[in-house]
Design a protein that fits this description.
CATH class of the largest domain: Mainly Beta
Distance between the termini: 41 Å
Radius of gyration: 29 Å
Order of helices and strands: HHEEEEEEEEEEE
Number of domains: 2
CATH architecture of the largest domain: Sandwich
């Protein structure tokens, strides 16, 4: 295969200097003038398709834990008490949990007076519950005016689901794992579980809230 010269200036220069008329296959002159279009250089940032970008966001297979952003509580649920830590990864030791208590943590970027900004968040909750305890409650998003243990309950913004330990178990079990779209205008800075009904007993909880991307997907993402 010959090396084609495809722009007019180079063709004219080669023909004039070397009198090339197509006899040399290794440097033949193209009979058709083809414009040279620069598509990209190595210095250009490579673009990623919308499909691939959102596929990578929603195919995350494990929660991401920042060890500098972990808080440990002694007990998750105590009757009449709300616990909401400022970190976005929180877990507890095994302890005697009682119903009608709330426990949770801040959303990434959320704090007193500050709300989480536009993006896709992943909320993952797991539990270890010993026989015969069974915990049942809801998962809700709040605007907390303060954080701590105990703390005054903030403003409920939205309930996003229910959770339960189902059957008593002694191993860690994922009880809630969802992608959640949160906008700045939603005024959300925390996630709280309430243990509203069930059988009190010994259990431990863990929650991680991760921000996956600073962007809200268009609709529909996948054709």
């Amino acid at each position: 295969m010959g090396n084609r010269v495809t722009d007019q200036t180079s063709q004219n220069g080669l023909i004039e200097k070397f009198s090339l008329k197509g006899e040399l296959p290794e440097m033949e002159v193209s009979p058709v003038i083809q414009p040279v279009v620069q598509v990209a250089t190595l210095d250009d940032g490579l673009s990623v398709s919308e499909f691939e970008k959102w596929r990578s966001v929603f195919s995350v297979s494990a929660e991401l834990i920042d060890v500098a952003n972990v808080h440990v509580d002694a007990i998750a649920f105590q009757a009449g008490v709300t616990k909401c830590d400022l970190s976005s990864t929180v877990h507890t030791f095994l302890g005697a949990c009682t119903a009608v208590g709330r426990w949770g943590c801040a959303t990434p970027g959320g704090s007193a007076g500050n709300h989480s900004t536009d993006g896709i968040y992943r909320i993952t909750i797991s539990s270890v519950v010993l026989t015969p305890a069974i915990f049942v409650g809801t998962v809700s998003l709040y605007d907390q005016a303060a954080f701590g243990d105990p703390v005054a309950l903030g403003t409920l913004r939205q309930s996003i689901g229910t959770w339960t330990t189902m059957q008593p178990h002694e191993g860690p079990v994922i009880i809630f794992d969802k992608f959640v779209k949160i906008l700045t205008t939603d005024q959300i800075n925390s996630v709280l579980l309430d243990f509203s009904i069930g059988t009190a007993g010994t259990g431990a909880m863990a929650m991680t809230v991760t921000k996956l991307i600073d962007e809200v997907p268009p609709f529909v993402i996948f054709p």
